What we know:
This protein is mainly α. It is built from 20 helices and six strands. α3 packs across α7 (168-188), α4 (89-113) packs parallel to α14 and α12 packs antiparallel against α15. The chain is globular, with a radius of gyration of 25 Å.
Amino acid sequence: MTTLLPPLQARPSRRIDRSVLSVRIAYAATAATHLIMLRRALGPDEGGFLVVARHWGDAGPYLYGPTWVDRPPGLIGLFSVADQLGPWGVRLTMVALSVTLVSLAANTARLVGGRAAAPWAAWTAFALGSSVLLQAEQLNGEYAAATCVSASMILILLALKQWRDPMWGRRVLVAVGAGAAAAAAVAMKQNFLDAFVFVAVLLGGTALVDRSARRRVANLAAGFSVGAGLVLTTMLLWSRDHGGPKALMFALFGFRARAAELMQQGSWDAPDKRMWELLALSLGSGLLVLAAHLIWQGRASLRTQNPLAWALAATATFEFVSLIAGANFWPHYALAFIPVVALSAGLAARRSRRGWAGTQWIVATMAVATAVISPIAAVANGPGEAWTIGSWVRQSSAATDSIVVTYTHPNVIAASGLRPAYPYLWSLPARTLDPHLTTLTGTLDDPDGPTWVVMWDHPQSWQLNRHRQLQKSLREHYRMVAHVCRHPVWLRSDVTRALAPLPTDCGGGAL
């Protein structure tokens, strides 16, 4: 096993050495950077997930009651917990997650590379996990899943490090935890099989290198499988009271297949544009530069009997293929690389490794850039139009009112605090599951239809409104009462509300 993990480090002295101090500063920098973003308005995905979480206990025909989203229940549960923490709960949850991610990166690097590796892994995780260029200030499935992947990695490596522990049940129990963390990543974002790939290659490679270890590897694999199975079974059991396993499987996988067919029939201009933007942002954040450097520096390790190097390379390859196959290229998709890149950078930055100075220079530059750019962006950006519109509706509404926003930006709904009246809060579900707007127009035509309608996207967007059926429903049942931040706001015709003063910071005007 000496090819995989170094021997246990001797207990350090009570005197804090530079590596420990550096890691602690990385923790503080991470917490401070995310705390600066505390009052930043929620992004569209954050707002949408929060709306789903607030109402998933309400009666309704969908997996999450009255609303529908193609995400697993672990993520919605996380937002439900965040919502209980108050108006800043989402941001406070991000503070906790970000510090946890940096801590896991540092401790994993220390476990397999010694104290010298920990600071560089920590600062890499800080640089990427706090970068506004990668939308790391927002709570999303990718960030939560990456944290779970990091937890799974350190637990399985710890189980291997306890190889000669006479209490074999202890290391199997740690492997059970690794499996649970790996499955928890899937419960946050369904395509995050990263930890499964990492563990499969790590354990398979260990058995290949050391034939005498195969039985013990099998024990760890069994423990890992039990842990993963427990979490996945829990998710399936939960679905029995929320539309059934079939509804869960469609939300997580079936919908994606149908949406992919829809995207192939449409224009690829937007995905192509986002792909080039992602490349530019990955370059600006330093991720692309560091990844290229690590690939070049670590190429020789793949030719040695080093299961850890194989596992890191296989996981990074899987993440890259998954990113390309998804064909969406949103900036936060790059967050998936943090666990692997941070650990690889920590190991490569040790002075015993060829090219260590280059690794340290790149990581230091990335950390400084994030420490400067992210706080400036947090202070410079205002609350945004979505928050302003939602706040105006909240001030003008009654507690029993409901709202529809077409066809995107559910953060308007989150800011309004009102009940969503239409199940599809994002454009892709609407385009895939309500392509003729039958559900939307039926909702507007219902005598108990939504109180408010905010027109965010043009009615003809994505050719959803070819027969102008949306305008017909609005004319019959609603009246336009204001333009808030240049977006028309409609109020149901049989309802009277005292309208709040229009905001002056984004050009509203009464009608």
